[in-house]
Amino acid sequence: MKKHFGIGLLSVMALGLLVGCGPSGSASSDSSSSKKSNKDYDLLVWEDKDKKAGIEDAVKAFEKENDVKIKVVEKEYGGQLEDLRLDGPAGTGADVITIPSDQIGTAVTEGLLKEMTVSDEVKALYTESAMKSQIVDGKVYGLPKAVETQILYYNKDLIAESDLPKTTDEWFDVSKKFVADGKYGLLALWDQIYYAQGIMSAYGGYIFGEDKDGNYDADDLGLASKGSIEGAEYIQKFYKEGLFPSGIIGDQGITVLDSLFSEGKAAAVISGPWNLDPYKKAGINYGVVELPLTANGEHMSSFIGVKSYNVSSYSKNAELAEKFVTFITNEENSKVRYEKTLEVPAVAALADDAEVKENESATAIAEQSKYAELTPGITAMNSVWDPANAALQTIAMDKAEPKEALTQAVAQIKEAIAASQK
Questions:
Q1: Is the Cα torsion angle 221, 226, 231, 237 positive or negative in sign?
Q2: Paired strand residues for 153
Q3: Which residues of 40-150 form beta strands (DSSP E)?
Q4: For residue 15, which phi and psi values (nearest 5 degrees)?
Q5: CB contact at 8 A, 15 and 325
Q6: Do strands 216-221 and 303-311 pair parallel, antiparallel, or not at all (unpaired)?
Q7: Residue 10 buriedness (CB in 10 A; 0-12 / 13-18 / 19+)
Q8: 69 — alpha (psi -120 to 50), left (phi > 0) or beta?
Q9: What is the DSSP string of 146-170?
Q10: CA distance 84 to 288
Q11: Is pLDDT above 80 for 11?
């Protein structure tokens, strides 16, 4: 029921962009000389926080080639859609935004994004998984910009690479020894579905099934399936044995987990590429590798997150915006962006680039991507997070058995989905 994207390095190194057309009935223009009447720029671009440097050269080149002015403003990419809801109707929103792929379905449903016209040649630039993340009901609403997935960080001062456990069972045993010595072995936020799905999926669990065309089926919920329950029962062992501290359960869990690793109190943690720099700044001598095998011999899965460029449905210059997005994410500009931001690029041709392949984190993400699956981008996914997390937290705190907690969560999710469709 889940879909793996075992395309090796190509799976993860496919970066792209989201593009679109002007809003229905609006005065869209591709003229390079038509300035907005009340602004000193032609396009407003919302870039991710601390990532502006990655596109500065490309922006200047585009401005020169098209005789236009681009204004780039940095914003946290997870919150740009919410900003567009408010600023778009007011006429102050961006023409181009960057958002995570699991927000695409909601954005399309709300009419915030432009459907884009993309040639097969352009689509072929990106991996299957990354490109799929931008398609809703057979229509393209963007192109991928960067990809990320979970990896395992380990403290080289606490455990050597040659001694790294290969399975979760081995990590279970090693963690017992670390706890006995006053530290922790492997830590993970398995009370959250974003991370727990990696275990549950390896046992055959899934969130949404897929129809014959590969589209997510919101009526086919697999959170309480046999595989999901078996995976949750395995997760429960780590909490019952005291291998995970109670402090990493709940909303503050991620802060506690990061602190324990940053302070040298944990041998390994499962996290994402967003911690590459913070852990480095904390002075931790760490390495990164793909996630381990589970007790049943399957490889741990993980969610692939895809960042994308999108054209707002409120843009008054949408054709120019689409042209800009296509340019900013071509192979040449994508490589420059990688060199300056170290976010794993999504252009397939960059998979064989020597500089990219030599990077340890990029290689780890590439290897893990063979076993990863897309974070569902349909609107119904919005109804999953809270009930699923609540169920996993009751399991972690030993307040309910997995079957009971997950069955109740599915009932809540179904109610929430039904309510959202009224």
A1: positive
A2: 269, 288
A3: 43-48, 70-75, 96-100, 135-136, 139-140, 143-148
A4: -105, 150
A5: no
A6: unpaired
A7: buried
A8: beta
A9: EEE--EEEEETTTS-GGG--SBHHH
A10: 36
A11: no
CB 18 within 8 A of CB 309: yes
Contact of 107 with 141, CB cutoff 8 Å? yes
- The closest of 79, 136, 19, 115 to 380, measured between CA atoms, is 136
Helix (H) or strand (E) holding 220, with range, is: strand 216-221
The tens digit of pLDDT for each residue in 203-235 reads: 999 999 998 877 889 999 999 999 999 999 999
The packing angle between helices 56-66 and 331-341, to 10°, is 150
Q: From the centroid of its chain, how far is CA 216? A: 17
Alpha helices in 73-192 (DSSP H): 80-90, 104-109, 120-123, 128-132, 168-180
The one-letter code for the residue type at 76 is E
Distances, alpha carbon 409 to alpha carbons 193, 218, 373, 413, in Å: 12, 15, 22, 6
CB atoms within 10 A of CB 156: 12
Report strand pairing: 208-210 vs 139-140: unpaired
Of the candidates 348, 365, 364, 352, the residue with the CA atom closest to the CA atom of residue 13: 348
pLDDT digits (tens, 9 = 90+) for 113-170: 999 988 889 889 887 788 888 888 889 888 888 989 999 999 999 999 999 999 999 9
Amino acid at 231: G
Q: Is the dihedral of CA 311, 317, 323, 325 positive or negative?
A: negative
- Site of tokens 């579905």: 193
Is pTM beyond 0.70? Reply is yes
Q: How many C-alpha atoms does 101 have within 13 Å on its Cβ side?
A: 31
